[in-house]
C-alpha cells in the first residue's frame, strides 16, 4: 500500500490564513495586478508539482543534507516521505530576478525544516537561474562555512505557453535583509565624510512583518566586515575568479543578530568569473601597463619577483579595490538614492578581507613563488607601496570599461577621490595590525 502524500498548504507573506480558492487574490497574477502571466494559484500548483516530482526526489535530497548536517552524521541519511506530516509553501517577496518562497517541511516527529524556493518567470530570471544553480553547486563543494545556500535541484516547466523555473536550496532561518536608511526621525545620527557630504550612519534590518530594527554605526560595521570575508573566501587565487554582480541594494547579503554580534550570509550568486588578463599570458594587459607607470615612487623590483607572483598580486589588487569600494555602496532603504557607508567602515572591510585571505590555501602550481613570505604578508607589502593618487588612478582605469551614462558610475566618480584617500589613510595606518 502506497504511503499517502503529505498535506500541502499555501501562504502569502503577511497573511496568516492559508491561501485557498476563497481568497480574493486567487486569480491575481504573480507579477501583480494587470501584469498577466502566471496567476497566484497557478504558481502554487506548479511549485507543488516541482516539489513532489519523482516522489519528492529533490526535496528528499535537501532533507537528507540538512538532517545529516544537524546530526553531524557522516553516514548517508535516507528520508521516507511517510515521515513528512505537512508542507507549507510561503510566497515571501517579489525580487528583481526571482520570487522567493519559503518551503517549511513539518516532520511527524515534531521538528520542521525550511528551504528556499526561488522562482523565475522573467526573461532575465530564466536566463539566470540555471547558471546560478551551477555556480552554487561549484561553491558548495568548497564552502566549509556554509556562507552560501546549498542547492538541491532546478527545473523548468511550461504552462499555458509560459516558461517558469524553480530552484530549491537551503533557507537561512532568522537571517534578514538590511539597508542604509535616511529616515527623517534619525537625522540626529547622520554624519559627514571627509568632504562634508552627508552619509547615513544608520541601517534598518527588515523584519518579515514590515517592521524594522534600527542599528547605528559603528555597531553595524561588523556586517560589512563579514560580507568582505565571504567574498574574499571565494576569491580564486589561481584563476582570479570571484563572485561578481552582487549588490547590497538587491539584498544579496542577509544578517542575523546573535549574542556575539552579527552573522552574515550571501543568498545569491549571479556570476563567478574573472576580468583579469594575466601579464604572463598577455603583455597587453591594460591594467598592468598603466599600473606600472603610475608613479616612480613605487619600487617595482620589491613588489614582484616574477610574472606568476605579479599576476597574483595584480589580480588580487583589482579584487581588493573593487571590494573596498562596492562594499560601501547601497541604496537608501534598498530602492532610493545611492549612498555610501561612512568612511569609518573601511578598517572593518580591510579586516574582513585579510581574514578571508588568511583562510585561503595557495594552490600547488604557484606555492613555490611564495616561499619567502606568506600570501598575506606579501600582499600587505605590495599594497603599502601605493599612494592615494596611485589608487585613484587605478580605480579610474577599472571604471574605464563601464558605460559612461551608467548612473552608478556617475555616483562612484563623484566619491572616488574621497574613497581613495580614505582607503589609503587606513592602509598607511598599519594594515599589519588590521589582519
Q: Choose one word for the global shape.
A: globular
The whole-number mean of residue pLDDT values reads 84
Q: Write down how many β-strands occur, each being a DSSP E stretch of 2 or more residues.
A: 17
Number of helices: 12
Largest sheet properties: 6 strands, mixed
The secondary-structure class comes to alpha+beta
Helix content: 25-40%
Enumerate the spans where pLDDT stays under 50 for 5 or more consecutive residues. 185-198, 279-305
Distance between the termini: 62 Å
Strand order of the largest sheet: 1-2-3-4-6-5
* Rg for CA atoms: 24 Å
Topology:
Blueprint lengths: L6 E6 L27 H32 L12 E8 L9 E7 L4 E9 L2 H18 L10 E9 L2 E9 L7 E3 L10 E2 L5 E2 L2 E5 L5 E5 L4 H13 L8 E3 L8 E6 L2 E6 L4 E3 L12 H6 L8 H4 L3 H20 L2 E3 L6 E3 L5 H13 L5 H4 L7 H9 L4 H12 L7 H22 L2 H4 L1
Parallel strand pairs: 1-2
Antiparallel strand pairs: 2-3, 3-4, 4-6, 5-6, 7-10, 8-9, 10-11, 12-15, 13-14, 16-17
Helix pairs in contact: 3-7, 10-11
What does this structure look like?
The chain has 435 residues and is α+β, with helices and mostly antiparallel strands. It folds into two domains: 164 residues, Phosphorylase Kinase, domain 1 (2-Layer Sandwich), CATH 3.30.200.20; 257 residues, no CATH class. Helices cover 36% and strands 20% of the residues. Strands 1-2-3-4-6-5 form a six-stranded mixed β-sheet, with helices on both faces. A three-stranded antiparallel β-sheet has the order 7-10-11, with no helix packed on it. Helix 3 runs parallel beside helix 7 and helix 10 runs antiparallel to helix 11. The termini are far apart.
